[in-house]
């Protein structure tokens, strides 16, 4: 199970039948899609010339059920389609940063409201 903003690596091995044995398929145009309703990430896979294709990317900041999709169609070859479904979950409540810097104005507003209420209470209680 993956979380949002995780670093992810995708590997796939592709071989072709040469009549008598399986040989590594070498191409530079094989792509993978990280897909939920529409592709969020589309990356070209790099090869090691031995049939192993790989790429790495960061999981988008969206949670849900995603799929890895490799759909490859070339003239003279049988097309193939690979698909694997994976869940992407949000951070748990204890995995977020303790204080979020974008929320400092809200922190300031809440503390100034508490200070104002405290001062108002003292003035109201001790005013003659």
TrEMBL record:
InterPro entries found in the cross-reference section: DDOST_48_kDa_subunit, OST48_MD
What residues form the membrane-spanning segments? 104-126
Any matching Pfam family: OST48_MD
Share an example GO biological-process annotation for this protein: protein N-linked glycosylation via asparagine
GO annotations of cellular component type: oligosaccharyltransferase complex
What protein does this entry describe?
A: Dolichyl-diphosphooligosaccharide--protein glycosyltransferase 48 kDa subunit-like isoform X1
Q: Domain OST48 middle, which positions?
A: 1-128
Which keywords does this chain's UniProt record carry?
Answer: Membrane, Transmembrane, Transmembrane helix
The organism named in the record is Iris pallida
């Amino acid at each position: 199970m993956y979380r949002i903003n995780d670093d992810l690596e995708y590997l796939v091995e592709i071989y072709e039948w040469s009549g008598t044995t399986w040989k590594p398929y070498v191409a530079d145009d094989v792509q993978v899609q990280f897909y939920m309703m529409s592709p969020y990430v589309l990356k070209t896979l790099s090869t090691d010339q031995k049939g192993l294709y790989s790429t790495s990317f960061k999981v988008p900041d969206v949670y849900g059920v995603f799929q890895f999709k490799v759909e490859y169609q070339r003239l003279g070859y049988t097309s193939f389609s690979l698909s694997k479904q994976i869940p992407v979950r949000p951070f748990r409540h204890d995995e977020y940063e303790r204080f979020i810097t974008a929320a400092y104005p809200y922190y300031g507003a809440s503390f100034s409201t508490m200070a104002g209420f405290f001062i108002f209470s003292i003035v109201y209680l001790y005013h003659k």
